[in-house]
Specification:
Helix content of chain A: 40-55%
Largest sheet of chain A: 6 strands, mixed
Number of strands of chain A: 17
Strand order of the largest sheet of chain A: 10-7-13-12-14-15
Strand content of chain A: 15-25%
Shape of chain A: globular
Oligomer: heterodimer
Number of strands of chain B: 26
Number of helices of chain A: 13
Distance between the termini of chain B: 50 Å
Largest interface: A-B, 31 and 29 residues
Radius of gyration of chain B: 38 Å
Shape of chain B: flat
Strand content of chain B: 15-25%
Helix content of chain B: 40-55%
Amino acid sequence: MTTESDARDELIDLAADFYDQFAAGRIPEMELPTRTKSNIEYDEESGVWTYGDRTSVRSANSVNGARKLLKAAFTIEFLADQLDEDRSSTLRELYYLSESWDNDEAQFNSQDESNDLVEDLEIVTGVTREDFHMRPEESGAKVMGPLRLREQTNRGDREIHCQLDVGQGGYQIPNNPDTIEFLDNDAEFVLCVETGGMRDRLVENGFDEAHDALIVHLGGQPARATRRLTKRFRDELDLPVVVFTDGDPWSYRIYGSVAYGSIKSAHLSKYLATPEARFIGIQPADIVEYDLPSDPLADSDVNALESELEDPRFQTDYWEEQIELQLDIGKKSEQQSLASRGLDFVTDTYLPERLDEMGVI
Amino acid sequence: MTSFQSSLGEDEGIAEELAESQREISIAEFFEKNKHMLGFDSGARGLVTAVKEAVDNALDATEEAGILPDIYVEITEVGDYYRVVIEDNGPGITKEQLPKVFGKLLYGSRFHKREQNRGQQGIGISAAVLYSQLTSGQPARITSRPKGQSDAQYFELIIDTDTNEPEISVDETTSWDRPHGTRIELEMEANMRARSQLHDYVKHTAVVNPHARIELREPGLEEPWKFERATDELPAETEEIRPHPHGVELGALIKMLEATESYSVSGFLQEEFTRVGKKTADNVIDEFRDRHYGRELAWSPPRAHDDRDVAAAVADAVANKGEAATTAFSEGIAGTVANNDRLSRSELAEIVDGVAETVADDTGKTFGGTVRENAVDAAWRAITGIGEDGDGAAGDGEDAENGDATESPLVPDVYALVDDATSTRKDDAAVRAMAEALARRFESLDGDAFRITRDDLERLVADAASFVAEQHDATFGETARENVVESLWSRARTVPDDPPKVRDVAGDRDSAADLLEAMRGTDILAPPTDCLAPITAELVEAGLRKEYDADFYAAATRDAEVHGGDPFIVEAGIAYGGEIPAEGSVELLRFANRVPLVYQRGACATTDVIRTIGWRNYGLDQPGGSGMPNGPAVISIHVASTNVPFTSESKDAIANVPAIEDEIELAVREAARELKSYLNKRRSMQQRREKQDVLGRILPEMADKVSEVTGRPRPDIDGALARIMNNVSLEREVDDGTVRLVVENHSDVNERLEITDIVSTEPTDVSDGTVVDMDGEWFVQWKPEVASGDERELTYSVDGEADFEVSVGGVETEKLTVNA
């Protein structure tokens, strides 16, 4: 990983690039990979999906392009100063902070614009935004399980056991999980859970204790910190990872971003994605097998499923079979529909059966 | 179009009586009853109409004399009345002409003339004279000085409202400073509430008559309002044309028939109408015969297995010609007859004549008229089977239908035609019943030639159909009946009889109506168009330029088209921007034969057309995408015709005639396309200027920032700026399936470009480029060289909707602005 001074140097180098282009009588520009579904490719070596060869150019040739590059120059200055002073800020703070810049043209019009620009800078410099000391607004999710770790906080290092030292809510993942050092653990596997309600059910039923599971709450589309930590569990602790979500197309994308990386942050796939992560359920096959209460697929669900069939990340035999089955039965079910068989069904029957099938326990 | 029924003439006595009593209404009463139609329904409007009629007259008078018009209009208050004075520099007017021009309602040479003229109906100025007389009691005061005379003549004229006869009450010599011209002075009850319409009328007259000088004085104007001439060119002189056969009506036709010197209808048609030569006249006359005499139904000759024998029948009918000649004659007839699928009695008579001549040549025996007639009768009996021995006379009507009379010999022929004309789903019994019913009705036609007009045939078929419906419970609907009529009619033959003579047609309303229908039913070349004098696109634009201070002007003149028998031309002009107010809807100027139309805008075809055009496509704002567009624009539309169809006599609004509406739309769109390309260019100029402004501000700031961050001195950015400022632009315009790519080179060097357009449907009419088909996508490629400061248009056509993707090579990307 880059150090703080490396990060600063990369940013200054980018500014120097612009400078050199001006000096050579050229119009400054910045080349970025095209960030669309059609330009992500499977990287054989790392097993994750990253950007392909197609690139787009941000050039100061057009009014919009020039405004973007001006904003980039101002943002570079801000980030470099922040690193100099060893401070940090949130993405939202950057957006509001631009109001104080003395140039109207350089101010951001929306938070999306500033978020996108920071991502552009990550891609061009090869430095993650964590190393720019930029935090997202939302904190990472929570972990519960037999693991002891040490976290560097700005109030000093803390040793924490993720079962014994935490409350019912679990251990809060920090924005930059690379500040964590794993000490020792009794964990057998990692179970990533989509919804808060299901996580709470598993914790209440003592699933983490009974099976030595590290239960990671994803909370919808998982934050980068959550994905990064999951990857570290896999790579550093050599733990199998399974993902437990609702049985609908949107949840498959949550699994996809954990396992394969997301389209928006494909430049960071090698750092965030856990290609070994496997999908435990709810599978369309489970809806049939367990006769789960279900809702009919809406038109938007059908479209999402069809678009997934074309998504290179889902072009595996397993996913094609599951998605086609789901289109066939025309149904979707939530995780919590398992409660129709009783509150303990998920911990006593469903998960053990599935984990056994997958060879995890 | 008016249609005439043959029953119209029957009660002529009553019509005469009605006309008699109508004449007893005084002209004043007539005027009072119709003044809304004539444009005098209020004091405000009466004033405008009086000015309008007098000015129209003055313009026509000067132009006809080849003089550039110089017209003076003055309105003053005189006690409770208004005085209107209109002067022109025309040829003046003689005492003899005076009552005709100013005095008599509905008089005017133009009434019968087919020529583009302002007045067209001669109702206007005399109505103004009458209006002034009726409201103020004052006579019309007219001063006239014909060219070359040292003195002018002063007249006072009143109209006897009982007789509609004008009377000159004062006639004296006077002096006048104009070298020639006419001055008319009318006093009338009026008000100036319609001032804006008056101003519009005068201003618009100036727009559409750029060759005229007009001056207006009225109480509300501090300074006289003067419109100077924009051109010294008089409108082209119009040719008077003879009427077109498709454009006359029955009354006019009868008048022409009465007045013509021609003896035959063919001569009459060729003499009196435009576009009628011998061939067209023959076609009209065939149509006329069909309507006047009807056609003869044709029947198939007996076949070998029939027991009817033409040869034997003819031989029986011939006596004393010797066996050889008789045989030659009868066999000859039978042989020729057998060569025909069907034939009519007239055709049979022709055959008999022909064979008689041949046999006479061969044998020396003469077959005279009586013999021939007998032979025709005998052969015709054999062919039709009617009147043959043993067949019995054709039973008439009801008895035959209800009884069990023997089948008519015509049935097989009729059956074949009816069967052919009706759908296969028709029950055979119904078809047979129909054939039988028809055959019985044909048999009872007068004479033995089976002559019938199409109208009668339709009635006969309808009658037979209703009989069949009643008796056999089988319906022959309207379409089936039409098909049967068409099948019978198309196989019937036009008769060879000479058409009636002109004087007979003139004296018989029914015959005249037949002739009129025949004329309308014949395809005839459209009338010539040299009777029209369009303003020309150039002068339409000059007129707008003169009266509107705008940024942009465009105009279009369409080619002449024909509606009914009258040719017409539509012209349109658009002025945009400048001093034209930007708020509210655009101003619409409407003109008919160079006369501005000021009232009833909402009822006018021009307004309807403007409302239906999608103006957003042409760069004008149009709330809701239809209706009057908004913005700083003036649209002018001119319709010139020998007969402009108006919605009413006051001639305020052009009627919704589809042919004219189509041309109005095309003319307006033609001018609007120029507007669109002007607005597009202006917008792209604006965008370029904006881009230069913004980049000229942002790039130095960015340079400052990067020098600050890197800690180096400020870089020189002039090179980068220069590249951006001198750019090459590519714009796409798609209009009605035509795609235009416009390349503009604003750099200071010539550019060699490589432009590739990927199109989703097949392009046609590609301007000097190449097209390659790649799996349902077409790659259109051009390699134009565009000189510095120049522009180039690349065009092609696509059918319907298409997607485009353009790429441009051969020029540095930073110099390129693509908007396509």
